[in-house]
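Figure-free illustration: sequence to structure, shown twice.
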Amino acid sequence: MQRIQVLWPYADFRRLFVSQAVSTLGDKMVLVALGLLVMDRTGSTVDLGLVVGAQSASLLCFLILGGVWADRLPRHRIVVASDVVRGALHALLAALVFADALTLGELVAIEVLFGAAEAFFQPACTALLPQTVPERLIQDATAATRFTQRVAGFAGPALATALVLNFGTGVPFAIDAATFLVSASLVTHLRPRPRGEDPGIGRLSLIADARAGFHEVRARPWIWVTIAVFSVYLVVAYAPYLVLGPAVAAAAYGRAAAWGWIVAGIGVGTAVGSLLGMRWRPRRPIYTAIVVTVPFGGLLVAAGAGFSLAIVLLLAIAGGTGLALFDIWWSTALTQRVPPAALARVSSYDHLGSYALLPLGVVGVGWLAQQLGATTVMAAGGALAMIVVLAALLPRETRQMGQPGADTTTTRGKLALSKAAA
């Protein structure tokens, strides 16, 4: 908490921090409320998959466009506009639920539009955060923001469940709409500091600006190799985690509810990792970030192999800690080493590349589990994940990149990095 005190005097950071804490709590509530709403209306997991898949597909389709506009326009204005649009959409959804007039087609349409607005928000907010604090505090600001997201991940689902059980499925969406308006009102007052914006951005076409953003990714092997590796990593590790968890817990420990304890262990680990990320600055941050993700694969192997629940819980905490630290160090490295004028576009390529294969992975994992068994697929996925993620260490820059001003790279690597920062 001492690091939060260092950040708190910066008014723009305070406003963005509080806005995202409030908004993220609403988002986490909706994750549960959406499932409960669909199951209450249709009782079909296929319908739920259609709704969630439609939102995710819309998000992925518009990410690059969102990144381009976030580098063209003042980023806080895009965040405000996205908040207003998303708030209006979920206010409409709540009204339809209260009126008992919601159809599945309307729900899909609302979530498609919601995903599109989210695609503009994510790169803009990622690139906006560094403009609210001095350069030396970027990692601290990133870690503090991630910590609030982890806390919201605990509180949001529990609050949503209680609200739905007592007041109905429309209430969480109404509250989420209100959180977006609170967020927008706070971000409106931001006056982000200049951070190397390119006055030439926007003079070319949208496609040309998108290509320029892709060039920034392609010119840095440590970025594009890591994105490519994590695209596969999410398929072999995160897809089994999302789809097979309860079935594996039931087979290995006799009750599906044991998966709840494992998920809670990961949640504890991500909170611990976020707190560690405020202070820990490893000499080689990207190298260390890759290595600390390995325990998550070990968790999947242990759960699939039926190791004792105590061992699995310890691995869950270690895995969650590693994933949180990777997120913080990776985001900080992008912020420090990508030209500020292209940061939103690079961030959008990062999100798109990393998650592009996940929908196929979710479907494929479900099919494989039917053929081979859930425990076998999860254990194999975890083992493969531990191998795949180490491929991200192939670029020399990834292995040798140090903290800014203290790089341990070779002369050739230093020249490449200096050009990237220019």
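We now fold a second protein in the same way, so the two outputs can be compared directly.
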Amino acid sequence: MIVSASRRTDIPAFYGDWLFERIRQGYALVRNPFNSRLVYRVPISAERTRCIVFWTKNPGSLIGRIEELESFGIPFYFLFTITGYGPELERNLPDKAELLRSFLSLSRRLGPDRVVWRYDPILFTSTYTPAEHLRLFGALAQRLSGFTGRCILSYLTMYNKCRRNLEGFDRIEVSPAARRETIEALQELASGHGIELSSCACTELADSGVPAGKCVDDGLISRITARTFSGRKDRSQRDSCLCVESADIGAYDTCLHHCLYCYANSNYAAAQRRRRLHDPESPLLIGKLGPQDRVMDRGNRGSGA
């Protein structure tokens, strides 16, 4: 089984103590987001977990615990998002200099294959024009050159949550031709710094020559574990998503980064409210089991909730 930690929240940034306790106990409990009384028991152990995929914008607290994390014997890699946006869009993130230091520190410790850069999502405003994205991306690519071999990107998908949180923001529409030209220029910048671009569930980018990628990537897992592995497509994700099956141990409405483009939070108040229900000793990320809850062992069933 592959454990995803997590598409729904930033576990390295906010829930590190809980994560380590769950690994020590050998499992985590996860509520089905569409049926809150259905709870999955997800194994997290060297015997039953092929890899942990960490999704983060700020792994700060984990950087000093990498040796402890490796002692559990479970392979892992990081998907580390660094964009060029400022606090008007990413309201609670540290400044970019600090995040870049964290990225480089992780890469020095783990190697560039195990720290994948995400420049995601791309949206356009009166400030973040195509030209400004090229400037910001180029500066980041220069700094990360040699510390990662791959960057994953996509254009913003306007989910209802994103639309609500971005309401009133000065988003601008960019023509398909300009979007394609932007991606082609980003690809040239990345290539010049030894970084390969791939897309995340964004078929539009294929027209610009950017190959479709996998964030949860069986090929990468094979390389870092030195064991051949071929996973099935995760059917719980969008049709255009090529990720292989994984079990996500996060929960929606729990990330406190307060990024206005985020699909995982209804709003910041909801995230703050649910964060107060977190208990590092509970097998659930948020709250506790109740008498009406039904627990099912995920075993090797793969993805889903």
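Summary for the second example: The radius of gyration is 19 Å.
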